[in-house]
């Protein structure tokens, strides 16, 4: 088929402290690159940005290393509660679920709510939706996440949050940051979409709401789309995703919008990262923490941000 617009894609699997060792880095790189390759092929085939974002989120949710879907962290009571949202930039429609349990892919419920008059549902409402849709019950608990929770319980939950990566050789014991997955896509028709999904911080108070199910962490218009990862409260305080998108909508370039937003965030001592694409196909990312687990396809090749030097605030192509 004729390509009207060169499609672009960027995904993330969290942000946080530096990965331990080259072996750990390469494991994460292979996971991210494989998903980028599969999802970008769908964009080339002409699938819509929204469809592609959902597929990308499903693949990331199914990867047990990342904190979303299978491999989600446990909350303080030992339960998994997940949140996800989807935003179609073409019609500026946001939908999501908050603190849903026992489903494989929370992003599927966010998609189902895109055409609903009630587009964000929490715990009981989200569970009822899953029942209505006949979504099979699923247990996303992994042994590594269980052991992580048991260790923290023995230590009286002194750590504020769980590890960003579920991998024995990668688990950080003191400087771990947050795991969230996200996908931003520009399709062949020039339309943007974004999706974000998470298992939460880990060890948190029951009922805590993640930024991943809010516009603060996941936002798109026809001008730009942004998915965030990191400490949710910091993302909410900066209202990060819409702040970047609104600046682009008002005429600022994506790179300028990212630079200004992350400069402000650094001054406020925030801890997070973000990925973005604008309507012209510019890909950008930013971070205030050492590592952003992101990979992208710029239309020519797959690249990633895994070995970006510390101190690099924003980048893109």
Verbal overview:
With 317 residues, this protein is α+β, with helices and mostly antiparallel strands. Helix content is 31%, strand content 24%. It has helices at 21-44, 49-62, 106-112, 123-132, 143-154, 232-238, 240-249, 254-267; strands at residues 8-16, 82-88, 93-100, 120-122, 181-186, 192-198, 218-220, 224-230, 272-278, 283-287, 291-297, 302-304, 314-316. A hairpin with a 3-residue loop joins strand 7 (218-220) and strand 8. Helix 1 (21-44) packs antiparallel against helix 2. The protein starts with 7 loop residues before the first strand and ends with a strand.
Helical content band: 25-40%
Q: Which sequence of strands runs across the widest sheet?
A: 4-3-2-6-5-1-11-12
Main sheet?
8 strands, mixed
- Overall form: globular
- Spatial extent as radius of gyration: 18 Å
**Oligomeric organization of the protein chains:** single chain
Number of helices: 8
- The count of β-strands is 13
State mean pLDDT (0 to 100 scale).
91
Short summary:
It contains eight helices and 13 strands. The protein is of the alpha+beta class and 317 residues long. Helix 1 runs antiparallel to helix 2 and helix 2 packs antiparallel against helix 3.
Key words describing this protein structure:
317 residues; alpha+beta; five-stranded antiparallel β-sheet
SSE layout and pairing:
Elements: E1 8-16, H1 21-44, H2 49-62, E2 82-88, E3 93-100, H3 106-112, E4 120-122, H4 123-132, H5 143-154, E5 181-186, E6 192-198, E7 218-220, E8 224-230, H6 232-238, H7 240-249, H8 254-267, E9 272-278, E10 283-287, E11 291-297, E12 302-304, E13 314-316
Parallel strand pairs: 3-4
Antiparallel strand pairs: 1-5, 1-11, 2-3, 2-6, 5-6, 7-8, 8-9, 9-10, 10-13, 11-12
Helix pairs in contact: 1-2, 2-3, 7-8
